[in-house]
Amino acid sequence: MDLISLIFLSCALAMDSFAISLCKGFSVKNLQIKHYILTSFYFGGFQALMPAIGYIMGVSFEPFVRPIDHWIAFILLSFLGIKMIKEGFENENCPNDSNQFNFKIMCTLSIATSIDALAVGIGFAFLNVNLILALFLIGFITSILCVLALKIGNSFGIYFKNKAEFLGGAVLILIGIKILIEHLYFD
User: Fold this and answer.
1) What residue spans of 102-160 are helical by DSSP H?
2) Structure pTM?
3) pLDDT digit string, tens, across residues 153-185
4) What are phi and psi of 176, to 5 degrees?
5) Burial class (CB in 10 A: 0-12, 13-18, 19+), 110
6) Cα-based angle 152, 166, 148 (whole degrees, multiple of 5)
7) What angle, rounded to 10 degrees, do the helices at 131-156 and 103-124 form?
8) Three-state SS at 128
C-alpha cells in the first residue's frame, strides 16, 4: 500500500473519532489543554493500537487466505465504508456524556471508534504494508483530526459530524476497490 493510500486510509479511520470529538467540543463550555491532550492520546492511541492487534491476528491466518487476500481487504473495507456511510445518514445527537473525559468514558469511546481499525489491521496482514509507518500515520492523523474536531465542535457545533462519517466511509470503499483492481489487473 502506497503512502497516499495510507494517508487517505488514516483519515477515513479517524472519522468516527472526529465525529465524537466534535460532540465533545460542542458539549464543553471551556476547552482546556487537558481536553486536547486526553482526546488526542486516547483516540490516536487506540486507533494505532487496534490495527497492530488486527495485524497479529491476521498473520496467524495468512497462509490460508493468501489466494483471496485482495477479496478479504475489499470486503472488509467496503463493509466498514457502507457502515460509516449509513451512520452518516442517521440523525444522531451527541451522547449525554460528551462533556466527560474520565478514563472509563474515554476508553469506551476509543474502543468503540477503533473497531474498524482492528478489521483494517487484519487486512494489513495480507497486503504489502509498512506496518510501522501505517500505525504511526493512523495514530498521528487521528490525534491531529481529533484536536481540530474539538476546536471546530466548540466553535461551530456538530454540523460536520454526519458529513465526516459519510466521507470516511466513501474513502474506505474507494481504497477497497483500488486494492481489488490492483491485485486483479496489475499483480
Assistant:
1) 103-124, 131-156
2) 0.79
3) 888 766 666 777 788 788 888 888 988 888 888
4) -60, -45
5) buried
6) 20
7) 140
8) coil
Round to whole Å and give the CA distance between 138 and 63.
26
CA–CA separation, 57 vs 167, rounded Å?
A: 28
Instruction: Give me the torsion for CA of 102, 108, 109, 112, rounded to 10°.
Output: 170
Write down the domain spans for the chain. Answer: 3-92+100-186
The string of pLDDT tens digits covering residues 110-146 is: 998 888 899 899 889 888 899 999 999 999 999 999 9
CB 9 within 8 A of CB 73: no
Reading phi first (left if > 0) and then psi (alpha if -120 to 50, else beta), residue 130 is in: beta
Q: Residues 23, 98: contact at Cβ < 8 Å?
A: yes
15: cell is: 472519522
Whether 187 contacts 180, CB under 8 Å: no
**HSE of 33, CA atoms in CB hemisphere, 13 A:** 0
Distance CA(67)–CA(62), nearest Å, equals: 9
